[in-house]
Amino acid sequence: MREYSIAAIPADGIGPEVIEAGITVLESLQKRVGDIRLSFHRFDWGSEYYRRHGVMMPADGLRRLQAFDAIYFGAVGAPDIPDHISLWGLRLAICQGFDQYANVRPTRILRGVVCPLRRAGPGDLDWVIVRENSEGEYSGQGGRTHRGLPAEVATDVAIFTRSGITRIMRYAFRLAQSRPRKMLTVVTKSNAQRHGMVLWDEIAAEVAREFPDVVWDKMLVDAMTVRMTLKPQTLDTIVATNLHADILSDLAGALAGSLGLAPTANIDPERRFPSMFEPIHGSAFDIAGQGIANPIASFWTAAQMLDHLGERAACDHLMDAVERVTSAGILTPDLGGNATTRRVTEAVVDAIQSASV
Ligand code: IPM
Ligand code: MG
Description:
The chain is 40% helix and 22% strand. By secondary structure, the chain is an alpha/beta fold. The chain has a ten-stranded mixed β-sheet with strand order 2-1-3-12-11-4-5-10-8-9, with helices on both faces. A two-stranded antiparallel ribbon has the order 6-7.
């Protein structure tokens, strides 16, 4: 029996709905596969915690998370709390504190999902976006002075370091190498941004020499949106900065049918700290409490978590169950269906139990 302890932080909006759905599915999966045991510890951190304590998580929060094998995270954000406070107080505090520098965002068209690209079907869009997750445009450096005066000035400084770029580039090349097509596209904006982005291009070329079997190319981020939309089948693994990949991954989610499907993993590749797994969609408080949130991003990121823990068979079993449910047309409203979160969850549980392992 292989045992894993998981810290669950459901947090805000639809976070608790999709994380509970995910835990239900993971418990069903462990029953089915038999040889793994997951124990969940739930933390009540988030916006409600902030209203009571004035902080999003306790001061020793990271120390308490350190001992877990992985973190299963819902979403942060509430209408009455400024986004930068909720975000930097919890999610980014964990990503940065645990140096989860590789943010991994797979996208493909699941069977049964209609995507907005008229000519694309399953297989035509199968990407993994690797987002630099520790520096770049979201480094947190900058400041504001002369507040309220006409001379007020604000800066957000994008930080690009040789070590930061080299490690994400190696991660991306290694990932590309592990996929059947062995293709990597490096995204920058090195025509307009002539320092940090040029350094990205140079380091990409250096690291590429370590991976002679990977075919790689470069794209400017604006042109990349066109290629993703018009020639999705020419892309496979993609690496980009924090900001660029943030934007491109929303586009990727939409092109594959819905942001309600899109998962993400915040990985510490060196495994010094637990990695964190979450749906991309955020707290979506406009639909919170209605029971209609799409739980599939939460299931998919749970599958990423199993893969990271070395449980490849359980990961594949879960994704196969998910695709049997989408292909049966059991879909939430964001995908044009009328199934509830619960209906989709029960269908995935049934699919897990009925499939041979
Ligand atoms: C994402 C989200 C977050 C991010 C937001 C909430 C800051 O958009 O995971 O893509 O950009 O990191
Ligand atoms: Mg985003």
